């Protein structure tokens, strides 16, 4: 960048800074302090052309999560911080085909490609009826999450974009399923009350039956079926052992614990700026003056239902 370019850049910088300063001054005079807001401005829900996420009103989507395209989330489910749930739009396939065609032209030359297309009369037919259908209704380009399911932090869920069979497979996750942190689910089906461990990877066509478990860090190869009540782990994943009845019962309890926790996070994230600033002031005062301000709401206690141990079931909780 030359001297003139640096001068233009500096002038532009000064103008922008001056405009922002004037905007902040005007906001202060109007009593509006939203420019000081420290909350996330990330957009969790985003359309892809005519397809957009459908999230039940009782579900929780963290502010830093990303739901893109045809993604459906059922009631009492939770999508935690840093998760990405993404469909595959048919336009991607169009771009891939265009790119391959352009590469073919560069490789073979325009005359060769013209002669090939001139002698080819068979039309391209895509057999959509041959696509594998999941156990619940879903389009082939969609991600479907049932009710009471939790997708924990930094997990990635999307459909199978390409594989050896040339199929586009949806990702369907049932009810009361726990998907651990940083798991990757691609074009697979997980039935109700299954458990996917932290860092596990499920590839195209994987089918996890009810009350089955994929151990943490496991890599489940394509088209693998994990039967009811079994634990699979390793790389590649293989059968390890049978689950006990208590372990299978814990899966539904784990999902319930996360549903309760999601309600607390949803309530906190729904607060407006003035509410959060007021709580910050009370916290500061309570820290200086002891418990005097605790009755005003400055110190918030965790609800009793969120303090359950992971190995305690609701119907077996000790009575007072």
Automatic annotation (TrEMBL):
Gene3D superfamilies recorded: Hexapeptide repeat proteins (2.160.10.10)
Residues making up the signal peptide according to the UniProt record: none
Membrane topology according to the record: Peripheral membrane protein
InterPro entries per the UniProt record, alphabetical: Hexapep, LbH_gamma_CA-like, Transf_Hexapept/Carb_Anhydrase, Trimer_LpxA-like_sf
Membrane spanning residue stretches: none
Pfam families: Hexapep_2 (PF14602)
A cellular component term, taken from the record's GO annotations: mitochondrial membrane
Location of the protein in the cell: Mitochondrion membrane
Family as reported in the entry's similarity comment: Belongs to the gamma-class carbonic anhydrase family.
Entry protein name: Gamma carbonic anhydrase
